[in-house]
Amino acid sequence: MERIIPTVIIRRSLVVLLVPALVFLLPVCSNINIFPVSEDKALGASLDAQIRANPKEYPILRNASAQAYVQRMIDRVIASPDVKYRKTFAYTVEIINDVKTINAFCTPGGYIYVYTGLLNMLDNEAALAGVLGHEIAHAELRHSTSRMTKAYGVQLLMDLALGNDPNRMVELAANAFAGLGLLMNSRDDEMEADDYSFRYLRSTSWYPGGIKYFFENVKKRPASDLERLLSTHPLPQDRIDATNERLRRNNIPSPSEAQLNSRAYAEFKRSIGGPRTGR
Fold it and tell me: What is the model's pLDDT at position 148?
């Protein structure tokens, strides 16, 4: 007679085998992620709903043409062959109408938000394309759920494997998202996202080093203007140096106006009430 092994025994056996390995691997391996891609999508949709339900903190700009302008830029960036979740993640954008805040962020699953303060600070499309590529990279590389794996991975796997508390994942995700805490990026995350932004822009007509103009403008601003940005995006000098090194290594010459598109960007800024400036 065939022997039937209860599911709970199989689960407990998996825990015995997997948890010791994860205890060792999670602190040292940056690319382990126990969450399925579907969870990135669900978490992003949940956070998007929270943001839309809080117009006091996140006042969305009601300007369809401006939103479409930025969305078209995103659509061009995600056409890169290096973007693998373009048909899986949302990759939609909203502009948050806050001229005092210089920031942009992307949730898991590709919901992107850009503040008018950041849009007004930039001088050309290539700079914005670099920032958008950077945010897309955070979603593509699944940085948020990777950090959740490091923070909760062993306990979460034990709960799921043993069938305990099926709502554990939802609870942990909600705690991690409190105050956008899950979007606080490490220096390694930022450097990796910068590198992928460069790769994405190589397949577009924009100058692939456009993000360096963002860095340069940030350096000119007082720290008091950058509180929200610095809370989620550390900006050390080595990120600027790394961008310049990518340009040198790939023999990228100085950009032309066509690669920057500063004139069109100046018109865009005027449409959202920003200063009309260009390079």
Answer: 78
Q: How far apart are CA 279 and CA 276, in angstroms?
A: 11
Amino acid in position 104: A
Query: Measured between alpha carbons, how far apart are the two ends of the chain, in Å?
Result: 80
Q: Take residue 32 and report the two structure tokens written for it.
A: 């382990």
Residue-level pLDDT at 273: 86
Sorted by sequence, the CB contacts under 8 Å of residue 64 that are 6+ apart come out as none
CB 90 within 8 A of CB 71: no
**Whose CA is closest to 61, among 99, 110, 108?**
99
Q: How many CB atoms lie within 10 A of CB 188?
A: 10
Match 């998007």 to its residue by tokens: 48
Q: What is the pLDDT of residues 21-54, one digit of tens each?
A: 444 444 445 567 878 899 899 889 988 998 999 9
Q: Exposure of 81 by Cβ count < 10 A (0-12 exposed, 13-18 middle, 19+ buried)?
A: exposed
Angle made by CA atoms 242, 275, 198, in degrees to the nearest 5: 20
Q: Which helix (H) or strand (E) holds 114?
A: strand 111-115
CA dihedral 229, 231, 236, 241 (to 10 degrees): -40
- SS3 call for 67: helix
State residue 226's pLDDT score. Answer: 64
- Backbone Cα Rg of the chain: 21
How many CB atoms lie under 10 A from the CB of residue 124?
Answer: 25
Q: How confident is the model at residue 221 (pLDDT cuts 50, 70, 90)?
A: confident
Pull the structure tokens for residue 253.
């010459």
214, 189, 191, 200: which is closest to 75 by C-alpha?
200
Which residues make Cβ contacts (< 8 Å) with residue 159, sequence separation at least 6? Answer: 165, 168
What's the pTM value of the predicted model, to 2 decimals? 0.81
